[in-house]
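=== Per-residue structure ===
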Amino acid sequence: MRDSVIRQSMRDYLKILEEKKQLMICEKEVDPKFELGAVIKKLNGIKPILFKKIKGCDITAVAGICGERSRYAELLNTSDEGIVFSLMEAVANPMPYEVVSSGPVKENIIRRNIDIKKLFPIPTFHEKDSNPFITAGIVVVKDRKTGKSHTSVRRLQVLGGNRLSVLIESPMLLDQYFDMEKEGEPMEIAVILGYDPIFMVSSQVNSQIYGLDKYEVDSALRGEPLKLIKCETVDLLVPAYAEIVIEGFMPPKIREKEGPFGEMAGYYGGGTLQPVMEITAVCHRSNPIFQINFPSSSEHVLPNGLMREMHLYQQIKNIIPTVKAVYLPTIGGCRFHAIVSIRKTSEGDGKSAIIAALASNKDVKHVVVVDEDVDIFNAADVEWAIATRVQADKDVIIIPGARGSGLEPTHELRGVTAKMGIDATAPLGGLEGKFERTSIPGWERINISDYFR
């Protein structure tokens, strides 16, 4: 039972990180307006940070626990390359969750006089952000056609009191909200904060493609049923070991301006009219830990990028069965740049992999295809392959006037985007000839610290 709690409680996960000396603890008081976000950005959302003292609030906050690939690999008991296969297995074989009667998230229940800004240290990140924003909130709604739970990370702008605006750009959320709005019905919603990396990555499964209950994907990934508890004021299930749950509903035909806001690509997004959430209850653990996700950081883009890698791998494998691994680097928002490793069996495999990658998602803008001897997670190794195995007139493909990402500013400016593929594979058979890499026997056993004092 204890192992189960550790695997589902963020605070116990933080204890493990602290024991491994992987948790940075900030004892200095930080201001939630600008300063807190600036500290997170200095570490790019990769290093877990626990903020002990936040100006104007007695609650601690955490950031960065979902921003490093190796952390997912460790939790899933696999390698960096193996994460994709673990995700594929969970999507193919979801596991039932478990509904429990009680849980730590219900240690404190607030139903009256709710002022969300006074309860939690909600940050303002950038100079021109319109308001403080909750950015790590995982929103859950129930699909009224199937009864399945749909979770997704949504940003929520604090409007004051018990009101938030919700950026509902997820197709499933949009469709259901608009359908209920036409009928004059409010949509029940809950916001979950204080979870582990497995819960985060499970929320990124594409509902349109796979049609799954994301709680069942979570259960499959962690190898045990996710423990869920019923909300107090809405008909939804939430994790029993979450730190915070905000309950409420989105009434029809009410909009508030949301934004501007510093978004994923490092630019400001303009203000738009978005639905409003009216909060009916807040549940939280005693001494709750507020969770923060800095926009444009590794933590912001990586979880979604891992699920995108799964889809990218599947799409390429349909064309190139010998694809070995795929990688969407965080520097490209885990969506604009793709690196693909293949075992080449025919001339033209590199070009075919490029076509498959660019066709897999409108967001993919640049693709580099390399041989299996190249470490796709090592930028220097990929650049070496480009430098030594590419002739631009033969190996670079440019496609003008393609559909692109709404988050990429040059596409927004022009309405279309150019896409590029680089075939950085050696000629067929070249890895055993002219393009064979030099090697040193015993290299992998050398520990450089053994040789110096």
Q: What stands out?
A: The radius of gyration is 23 Å.
